[in-house]
Design a protein that fits this description.
heterodimer; A: 309 residues; Rossmann fold; four-stranded parallel β-sheet; 14 helices; globular; B: 436 residues; alpha/beta; 3 domains; 41% helix; 15% strand
C-alpha cells in the first residue's frame, strides 16, 4: 500500500536537513513547531547537539497560537531571545504546523527584521519531504543572504552533513559562504550538494569520500547500490559497474540506464527480486526487505535512512 | 558581552508569590531550549515514556503512526528494543493529504493490511493504536469516527483506538500524556467486581515491589494489577474488576475519574514524597480511607536509618537536582533540605502547583538557585558557580559533568519508604565510590 511502512522507520525529514546545514553557523535557529520536531532534530538527527551547544530552539507553538495565527507572539519571543543570546542571523525552519496553517514566511521575515535589525532566513520545510530537500533549501537561503560572489575561497564542499556522512561530516562556515568567489572549487558531496552547487551557476565536481573509501571492498559481479546518488556515482567513477537506487533525489546528470528513484518498501524488494544482483551495497536496515537475496551484502550505513551512525 | 543563564533564588520566587512566577521559569512563555529534559519530554527515545511507548503499554497491541515522516523519525530507537519489534507501523502523510485530508480514507485499509501482515506471522494484535500528530489536531480530525471505520473494516474483535501525540497541547487541559492514559484505560469494559482486587495506575512500568504491595496483601488484597505487569490482553481486561484504583501519578487522574464514572471503580491518590514523616502520614490516611490496617513501622525505621546514615557519613552534603528523574525535583529538594542537606541548584520547570514546595524551600534554603530547563539562556549555563557535591537526575549530569551523578530514572518506579531508603543508600554508595 502506498505510504505504508511495515519495516522501515521514517527517513530524515527536510527540517532536519535544513538544520544540519545551518548548525553552528552562529545563527539563532527557530524551528516553528510545538516541540516535537525540535526534539527529533536535536535529540536524534543532529549528532553535534550533545557536543557543541548551538542556538537551536523550538518556537514552542501552542494550539491557540496556530489556530489564531499569532505571528506577533512569535516575533516577540524571538526578539526577547535575541536580547539575551548572541546571533548573527535568525533562521526560521518550517514544520508541518506552519505548512498546515499556511504561515506567511515573507511577512514573518519582514516583521522580525524590522523589530530586531538582524537578517532573517526563511526555510519553508514541512516535515513531509526528505532531508536532501531541506539541505538544498538551507544552502539556497544562505547563498541568497550572505554570498557576495567576489570572495577568494579556494574550495567549498557542499552536502557533507552528518545525515549523509555521520561522524565524517564537514561543516561549512558563514565566512566560507561569504567568500565564495569566481575561482572557488566546488564539490558536491551528496544530493543536496548538487542542488546547492547548481544554484551557484558554476562548474562543480561530484565526489563522495565515504564511497571512495569503500570502493576497493566491493567484489565483482552485478552490483546494486542503494544510498545517496553521489555515493553511487563515486563508486561508478571508481570503476564499479553498478545500478543506483535511491530513496532520495536522483539528478539527470547522474542517472543512467538501470538507475531508479524509489519511494516505497516494495519497490526495493522488487528491484532485488528481479534485478539478478550478486552484490548489494546498502544500509543493513534494508536487509529485511531483501529476503531471499543470496548474494553478498556490503553494509554502507546511511544515517538519514536508518538512524545508524 | 558575557551571557548567563537566567536563574532565580527560592527566596525571590517565594517573595514574588504564586501568581507572579517569573515567565522564564514557566513552560509556554518563550522559545524553548532543547535541554536534555526538554528532549526527554519532546523526543523520548529508549528511556522514559512518550506517547508512542506509552500507547503500546496494553499487551498485544501495535501502533500505526499516521503522520508526516518527521513525527516518526526517532521511533527507530524504540523499534530496536526487543519488546517493540513488529509493533510500530507508519502511514506517511504527504502534502496532498494535508490539503485534502485523503489520508483519513486510507487509514482503514492500512490497519487491515497491518493486522493481516501480523496474522500471517502468527502475531495478530488485539488492539491497534492509531497515533496522530499536530497536523490532525489542526485539521480537527475526528479520530473516534476513523477508529470506528477501522473496526468495521476489520470486522472482528480487534479494537482500534486513537493516540493523540499533540505537542501543541502541552499546557492544555488534557496534554498528550494525560490523554494517552485515558485512551489505554478506555479499553476496559464493565465487569463483575472482585473486592480483593486493586489496581495501581499512573506509570507505564511497574511500581517497585515494596511495602505498598506488602501492606495491601496483608490487608487481604489478593490481586494487585498494573498495566505493565499484565502479560496478556485478557489479563489487562481484568483490571476492570478492581475494587479501587491507587493513583500514583497525577497524569492518570483524568483516566481514574473516567474509570470511576464508567466502571464504578473509585480511586485514591498517593503522592511520591521523599520525607519519611509525610510518607507515614500519607499511608495512615490511605489506610483510614480504605478501611484497612497497615503496619509499616519496620520500613519507616529503615528509611529513617538510611537518612541518618547518609547525614552522618556526609554532613553538609549539597545537591544539584534535575527533572529527568523519578521524583518531583522541587519536592525532593524540599525533603533533602528538611533532612539538613544543602540544595544548591534545581533545573526544573516551575508551575503554580509546585509553588508550595518552593515557598517552603525558601524558608530552609533561601539561596537555592532555580533554573528553567526550557529557557533559551540555558545555552549559557555555567556550572562553575555551583558548590554541589553530587547531582540527581539524568539531565543534571549534563549540566554538572564534574561531580558524581545518580540518574534515578529507571522505568521501574521507586515509591514510599522503600524508595527513600534506596535513594539514600544509592547516594551514600555513589559518594563513597567518588571519594575512594
Amino acid at each position: 500500500m502506498k505510504g505504508l511502512r511495515k519495516v522501515l522507520t521514517p527517513f530524515a525529514p527536510d527540517q532536519s536537513g535544513a538544520v544540519s546545514v545551518l548548525y553552528g553557523l552562529g545563527g539563532l535557529i527557530v524551528i516553528i513547531d510545538a516541540g516535537g520536531c525540535t526534539g527529533n532534530i536535536c535529540g536524534f538527527d543532529e549528532p553535534r547537539w550533545s557536543d557543541v551547544r548551538s542556538a537551536v530552539f523550538s518556537a514552542g507553538l501552542r494550539d491557540m497560537d496556530a489556530i489564531l495565527g499569532r505571528d506577533k507572539l512569535l516575533v516577540s519571543k524571538i526578539a526577547s531571545a535575541l536580547e539575551r543570546i548572541d546571533a548573527s542571523f535568525v533562521a526560521l525552519v518550517g514544520t508541518p504546523v506552519p505548512a498546515t496553517i499556511a504561515t506567511d514566511y515573507k511577512a514573518l521575515k519582514r516583521m522580525i527584521e524590522n523589530e530586531t535589525g538582524i537578517p532573517v532566513l526563511t526555510i519553508a520545510t514541512d516535515g513531509m519531504k526528505l532531508y536532501d530537500d531541506g539541505e538544498a533549501l538551507a544552502y539556497k537561503a544562505l547563498f541568497e543572504n550572505f554570498r557576495s560572489g567576489e570572495g577568494d575561497l579556494k574550495e567549498i564542499v557542499l552536502g557533507k552533513t552528518p545525515l549523509t556522512y555521520g561522524d565524517g561530516s564537514l561543516s561549512v562556515t558563514l565566512d566560507d559562504i561569504r567568500n565564495i568567489g569566481p575561482d572557488t572549487k566546488i564539490t558536491a558531496s551528496s544530493s543536496s550538494g548538487i542542488e546547492a552547487a547548481k544554484s551557484l551557476g558554476r562548474p562543480y565536481e561530484i565526489f563522495s569520500s565515504k564511497a571512495s573509501e569503500l570502493a576497493s571492498k566491493i567484489p565483482s559481479g552485478k552490483v546494486l547500490v542503494c544510498h545517496d546518488e553521489v555515493f553511487g556515482k563515486t563508486l561508478r567513477d571508481a570503476g564499479i559497474k553498478c545500478d543506483i537506487a535511491t530513496y532520495f533525489a536522483l539528478h539527470d546528470e547522474i542517472k543512467e540506464t538501470g538507475d531508479v528513484k524509489i519511494t516505497e518498501e516494495d519497490e526495493f524488494t522488487e528491484l532485488v527480486m528481479n534485478g539478478g544482483y550478486d552484490v548489494i551495497v546498502a544500509d543493513e536496515c534494508l536487509k529485511p526487505l531483501a529476503e531471499g537475496f543470496e548474494g553478498q551484502w556490503i553494509d554502507a550505513p546511511f544515517f538519514a535512512l536508518s538512524g545508524r551512525r | 558581552m558575557t551571557r548567563t543563564a537566567v536563574r532565580y533564588t527560592a527566596a525571590k520566587i517565594a517573595e514574588l508569590g504564586k501568581d507572579n512566577i517569573p515567565s522564564e521559569l514557566l513552560s509556554g512563555h518563550g522559545l524553548v531550549y532543547s535541554s536534555p529534559a526538554t528532549l526527554a519530554y519532546n523526543s523520548p527515545g529508549a528511556e522514559g515514556f512518550g506517547v508512542k511507548r506509552a500507547g503500546l503499554s496494553v499487551p498485544e497491541s501495535v501502533m500505526l503512526i499516521v503522520s508526516p515522516g518527521c513525527c516518526g523519525r526517532n521511533t527507530s530507537i524504540v523499534s530496536s528494543m526487543p519488546q517493540y519489534k513488529d509493533r510500530f507501523f507508519y502511514l506517511m502523510m504527504d502534502e496532498t493529504d494535508l490539503v485534502t485530508g485523503r489520508h483519513l480514507k486510507r487509514i482503514p485499509d492500512a490497519v487491515c493490511e497491518v493486522v493481516s501482515h501480523l496474522e500471517k506471522k502468527g502475531n495478530k494484535p488485539r488492539v491497534v493504536m492509531i497515533c496522530i500528530t499536530c497536523v490532525d489536531a489542526l485539521l480537527g480530525t475526528d479520530m473516534e469516527r476513523v477508529c470506528s471505520a477501522c473496526e468495521r473494516a476489520l470486522n472482528d474483535e480487534t479494537r482500534v483506538r486513537p493516540c493523540y501525540m499533540y505537542a501543541l497541547t502541552r499546557e492544555g487541559r488534557r496534554p498528550p500524556m494525560v490523554h494517552v492514559r485515558q485512551t489505554l484505560y478506555s479499553l476496559l469494559e464493565p465487569m463483575e467486581k472482585d473486592p480483593r482486587s486493586v489496581n495501581i495506575i499512573g506509570n507505564f512500568a511497574p511500581l517497585e515491589d515494596g511495602e505498598l504491595q506488602k501492606m495491601l496483601f496483608a490487608a487481604g488484597v489478593k490481586h494487585i494489577r498494573q498495566i505493565s505487569t499484565c502479560s496478556t490482553y485478557e489479563e489487562f481486561l481484568k483490571m476492570a474488576s478492581a475494587n479501587f484504583n491507587i493513583v500514583t501519578n497525577p497524569e492518570v487522574r483524568a483516566a481514574a475519574h473516567d474509570m470511576s464514572q464508567r466502571l464504578g471503580i473509585p480511586y485514591i491518590e498517593l503522592t511520591r514524597v521523599h520525607d519519611v514523616k509525610r510518607t507515614a502520614l500519607q499511608y495512615r490516611s490511605f489506610a483510614n480511607a480504605a478501611g484497612m490496617e497497615f503496619d509499616f513501622s519496620a520500613e519507616e525505621a529503615e528509611a529513617e536509618k538510611a537518612v541518618i546514615s547518609l547525614k552522618e557519613a556526609y554532613p553538609g552534603l549539597t545537591f544539584n537536582i534535575g527533572e529527568c528523574l523519578n521524583a518531583d525535583p522541587f519536592e525532593l529538594a524540599l525533603s533533602l533540605a528538611r533532612y539538613g542537606f544543602g540544595v544548591d541548584e534545581i533545573y526544573g520547570t516551575l508551575a503554580p502547583e509546585k509553588f508550595k514546595y518552593v515557598s517552603k524551600l525558601a524558608e530552609l534554603s533561601p539561596d537555592t538557585k532555580i533554573y528553567c530547563n526550557m529557557d533559551p539562556t540555558m545555552l549559557y549555563y555555567d556550572v562553575s558557580d555551583s558548590k554541589a557535591h553530587i547531582s540527581l537526575g539524568k539531565d543534571a549530569a549534563f549540566y554538572c559533568p564534574e561531580i558524581p551523578n545518580i540518574a534515578w530514572n529507571s522505568d521501574i518506579q521507586p515509591f514510599g519508604f522503600q524508595g527513600i531508603t534506596k535513594l539514600m543508600n544509592e547516594i551514600n554508595k555513589t559518594m563513597k565510590e567518588a571519594r575512594a
